[in-house]
C-alpha cells in the first residue's frame, strides 16, 4: 500500500508541474488567453465599423469650397448645386443662404458671377 501511495503522490506532483508549466509557457508567449484575444479582436472590429456621430460634415460644405475657384464653370456649378440643395433641403437653407450672401461681399468676383449668385439667392427665397 505504501508503494502505491508514493506512486500516486509522484503522479500528482507531476500533474501539478505540467499544469504550472503550461500556464507559465502560455503567459510568457502571449500574456492573454485565446478567448480573451478573440473578445478584444471582436470588440475592436465592431468599434471600427461604427462611424463617430459627431464628425458628420454636411455635403454642401464640400461644395462650398469650390466657391473660391478662379474657374468660371466651377464657380457657377458650385452656386447651382448649392442652390439646388437649399431648395430641396429646408433645414440647410439658412446656412447656404448665408454662404451665398458672403460671396456677394467678395471683391474678387466678377459682375457676371455676382449677378448669377443674386439670381440664385432670389430663386431660393422664392422657393422657401
What's this entry about, in short?
With 128 residues, this protein is mainly α. The chain contains six helices and no strands.
Please characterize this protein's 3D structure:
With 128 residues, this protein is mostly helical. 75% of the residues lie in helices and 0% in strands. The chain has six helices and no strands. The protein has helices at 2-29, 34-49, 59-64, 72-88, 93-104, 111-127. Helix 4 (72-88) packs antiparallel against helix 5 (93-104) and helix 5 runs antiparallel to helix 6 (111-127). It is rod-shaped, with a radius of gyration of 35 Å. The model has no long low-confidence stretch (mean pLDDT 82).
Number of E strands:
0
Oligomer: single chain
Mean pLDDT: 82
Order of helices and strands: HHHHHH
Determine the N-to-C terminus distance.
Answer: 101 Å
Relative strand content: under 5%
**Total count of helical runs of at least 4 residues:** 6
Largest sheet: none
